[in-house]
């Protein structure tokens, strides 16, 4: 073993020692308007109430969903980290109840086309989130664009939000199909869990999952798990109009209780994530590996 190889092994072992238990969860949907960002925010609220430190990364570039739903205008966003010399703590915005978030902004919509120096800076800076949060929620864009796929293909945990609308179901299948066809997707290293949103009952949510899962298992051979259902609730619309999560202003609403149950289930189940995918650093390095 030469000196250079020995040094690489030492660094690799040191990196493994420094891995923390930060949990990275990507929340996505096959189409827009199905409640993806609402799910991200309300799960963040419930995790926070469990004593977890949570940061949301709004990766739906160009659409400021998280900040609008929080009713908070960030001073800086991710593009300021990349192009304006800002530090990570300067672009993290404090939301209600101590939930923090990073606005994606519109300056780096073509994230996958960053040059090597920009990618290194992005990975190194965002890796600092590791010591700031127990849970990092990646609120991705909707659909099957390359930018969305880049975030999903390397995610250790993905939550797919689907509604009973036929277009939502077909688009959810299309997203999973695109994911399965991606050469970098490893189904045994990714856990995909479905939330049935805007259903009339728990039974309808379970039925929606079973119908989609049968097709997914048969044609894509992806083992999708059922995470739970969130019923139709007018309080969600009221909360959105007030620019607050329903779990905050209507904590006893039916939807809030279901978000609490789902968050509790997520925490109790934990995640058996491969070493190289643990934490935000491993996740980001995988996402941008080809650019580094």
Automatic annotation (TrEMBL):
<dbReference type="InterPro" id="IPR027417">
    <property type="entry name" value="P-loop_NTPase"/>
</dbReference>
<dbReference type="GO" id="GO:0005829">
    <property type="term" value="C:cytosol"/>
</dbReference>
<dbReference type="GO" id="GO:0005524">
    <property type="term" value="F:ATP binding"/>
</dbReference>
<keyword id="KW-0067">ATP-binding</keyword>
<dbReference type="InterPro" id="IPR033875">
    <property type="entry name" value="FlhG"/>
</dbReference>
<dbReference type="InterPro" id="IPR025501">
    <property type="entry name" value="MinD_FleN"/>
</dbReference>
<protein>
    <submittedName>
        <fullName>P-loop NTPase</fullName>
    </submittedName>
</protein>
<feature type="binding site">
    <location>
        <begin position="31"/>
        <end position="38"/>
    </location>
    <ligand>
        <name>ATP</name>
    </ligand>
</feature>
<dbReference type="GO" id="GO:0009898">
    <property type="term" value="C:cytoplasmic side of plasma membrane"/>
</dbReference>
<dbReference type="Pfam" id="PF10609">
    <property type="entry name" value="ParA"/>
</dbReference>
<dbReference type="InterPro" id="IPR050625">
    <property type="entry name" value="ParA/MinD_ATPase"/>
</dbReference>
<dbReference type="InterPro" id="IPR033756">
    <property type="entry name" value="YlxH/NBP35"/>
</dbReference>
<dbReference type="GO" id="GO:0016887">
    <property type="term" value="F:ATP hydrolysis activity"/>
</dbReference>
<dbReference type="GO" id="GO:0051782">
    <property type="term" value="P:negative regulation of cell division"/>
</dbReference>
<keyword id="KW-0547">Nucleotide-binding</keyword>
């Amino acid at each position: 073993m030469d000196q250079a190889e020995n040094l690489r092994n030492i660094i690799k072992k040191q990196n493994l020692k420094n891995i923390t238990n930060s949990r990275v969860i990507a929340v996505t949907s096959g189409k827009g308007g199905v409640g993806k960002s609402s799910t991200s925010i309300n799960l963040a609220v419930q995790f926070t109430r469990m004593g977890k430190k949570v940061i949301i990364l709004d990766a739906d570039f160009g659409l400021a969903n998280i900040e609008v739903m929080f009713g908070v205008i960030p001073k800086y966003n991710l593009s300021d980290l990349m192009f304006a010399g800002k530090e990570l703590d300067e672009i993290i915005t404090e939301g209600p109840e101590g939930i923090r978030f990073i606005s994606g902004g519109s300056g780096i919509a073509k994230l996958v086309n960053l040059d090597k120096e920009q990618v290194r800076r992005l990975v190194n800076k965002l890796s600092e989130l590791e010591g700031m949060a127990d849970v990092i929620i990646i609120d991705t864009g909707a659909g099957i664009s390359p930018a969305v796929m880049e975030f999903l293909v390397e995610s250790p945990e993905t939550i797919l939000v689907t509604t009973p609308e036929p277009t939502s179901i077909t688009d959810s299948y299309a997203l999973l199909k695109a994911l399965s066809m991606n050469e970098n997707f490893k189904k045994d290293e990714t856990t995909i869990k479905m939330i049935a949103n805007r259903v009339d009952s728990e039974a309808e949510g379970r039925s929606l999952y079973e119908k989609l899962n049968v097709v997914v298992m048969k044609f894509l051979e992806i083992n999708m798990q059922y995470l739970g259902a969130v019923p139709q609730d007018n309080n969600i619309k009221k909360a959105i109009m007030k620019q607050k999560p329903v779990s905050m202003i209507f904590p006893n609403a039916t939807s809030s209780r279901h978000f609490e149950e789902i968050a509790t289930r997520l925490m109790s189940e934990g995640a058996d994530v491969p070493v190289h995918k643990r934490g935000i650093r491993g996740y980001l390095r995988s996402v941008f590996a080809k650019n580094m």
